[in-house]
Specification:
CATH architecture of the largest domain: 3-Layer(aba) Sandwich
Distance between the termini: 44 Å
Structural class: alpha/beta
CATH superfamily of the largest domain: Vaccinia Virus protein VP39
Strand order of the largest sheet: 2-3-1-4-7-6-5
Number of helices: 8
Largest sheet: 7 strands, mixed
Helix content: 25-40%
Shape: elongated
Number of domains: 2
Length: 319
């Protein structure tokens, strides 16, 4: 059976790698944020994936709604449309048109408790249609009850971890701006290792502790209230293998001068604690100012990452 995996745009290669690791099958990127693969053991992927937001079985692909053919399904059903990019119709209009097409073929409808969700995926005019295998988004984590207003999508957090080269075991991963703990928690759910979560605010430390407890990783996650200016007192020179974090950025609550001070302290101290050839993966809505203050580290990779409504810049530094 063919399936389409929805993942954050810009991290398709991470999803391909994960599909290969879990299912040992090839895959290919068919559109930004869309990875096609085939398997007879989908349940295995659903249980283990951290990079995929949604999966649907692919029944048909076309360029016009009129070309969509009705396929067998278990009733009652409903239609859900995901639309990205330019398209003349709104999602609700598409849902009505496709719903009527299936209804006229004798399929009953139940909008509240359907047994089958017909998923219409429109990206820049290209149309994929299939059966939704994940009515509840895979990116929603049940452990996440304390959510920071600047927190990341869990699938993006996982992607950053993979970009850092973290492999668990004796590797040390640090998040010095942990907020609600999404990055360190996802790291431990991926591979057990020495993962450390720091933040300068007590409420963020508490949120991380609560979420880590619900994720069943609290006993192996080191959490403390530590500001960046004290990092070199917590680690020996070159002790940390990788740093993955969502850096603070200028906003209504953080002035540019305040951000500059944070960035200056960050680069000064992480340059000391980071292992030779170690990586730092940073994400924010914009990183121009942050990159301009980097000293002693080389930029090895940059990419733009986004979900349906949020866009970020990602930069990978190497010592």
């Amino acid at each position: 059976m063919k399936y389409i995996a929805l993942c954050p745009k810009g991290l398709e290669d991470i999803t391909q790698k994960e599909i290969k690791e879990i299912l040992d099958v090839p895959s290919r990127v068919v559109l930004p944020g869309r990875v096609l693969f085939s398997t007879s053991v989908l349940a295995k992927l659903l249980k283990k994936t951290q990079s995929i937001m949604k999966i649907y079985s692919l029944q048909q692909e076309c360029s016009r709604l009129e070309e969509i053919k009705v396929f067998p399904l278990v009733t009652p059903f409903r239609v859900i449309c995901s639309r990205q990019g330019e398209y003349p119709l709104h999602s609700q209009e598409v849902e009505k048109i496709i719903g009527e097409k299936f209804y006229k073929e004798g399929n009953s409808v139940d909008l509240k408790n359907p047994k089958t969700i017909v998923f219409v995926d429109i990206v820049d005019g290209k149309i994929f249609i299939g059966k939704d295998q994940t009515p509840e988004l895979l990116s929603r984590r049940k452990y996440r009850v304390k959510i920071h207003n600047q927190s990341l999508n869990a699938c993006i957090a996982y992607g950053l971890i993979r970009l850092s080269g973290y492999t668990g075991s004796k590797k040390i991963l640090l998040d010095p701006f942990c907020r609600d703990g999404i990055i360190p928690i996802e790291a431990l759910l991926y591979k057990k290792g020495k993962v450390i979560a720091y933040d300068g605010l007590f409420p963020n430390v508490h949120s991380t502790e609560v979420n880590a407890t619900l994720a069943h990783v609290r006993k192996i996650l080191q959490v403390s209230r530590i500001e960046t200016e004290w990092l070199d007192t917590k680690f020996a020179e070159g002790e940390v293998d990788c740093i993955v974090t969502a850096v603070p950025f200028p906003s209504k609550s953080l002035s540019e001068n305040e951000a500059k001070k944070i960035y200056k302290d960050f680069f000064y101290h992480v340059s000391f604690i980071l292992k030779k050839k170690g990586k730092i993966v940073c994400i924010a809505p914009h990183l121009v100012l942050f990159k301009s203050m980097c000293e002693g580290l080389g930029i090895v990779e940059e990419r733009e990452v986004s979900t349906s409504n949020l866009s970020y810049s990602v930069v990978v530094f190497k010592k």
